Amino acid sequence: MSNQTYNPFENAQNQFDGAAAILDLDEGTRALLRRPMMEAHFTIPVKMDDGTTKVFQAFRIKHNTARGPAKGGIRFHPHETVDTVRALSMWMTWKCAAVDIPLGGGKGGIICDPPYPCPSKSACAGATPARCMPSWAPTGTYPPRT
Questions:
Q1: Are the CB atoms for 127 and 44 separated by under 8 Å?
Q2: Domains of the chain: total
């Protein structure tokens, strides 16, 4: 048994490398599509029901927007990693392209345990990644989840 930890982004890159070889993609295209085009790491302060403020780490990854705005929702998980979000954004790029949807791939992730502790609904509604993104990070347009 291997002691290596599973890395979803490395898995997505290996899948891409296999497909790129079959499609005989040139090196420039491979280099462009192998990594996300934009990554933002930021924090989201949220006022909790008990009056305290808790700060959550978050990520927003745009894998590729050549076909249109980055499609992809937000994951809330206590063990979220940037590599998971990178992989999911990459897979969203491929899913949209495979069914000819004119959207790119993106994904957001927030490290938190959604049910506990419970933030107030009004505080949570205002603490969206788009609102809390650093001013230097291009937010763009995100299609709604479906």
A1: yes
A2: 1
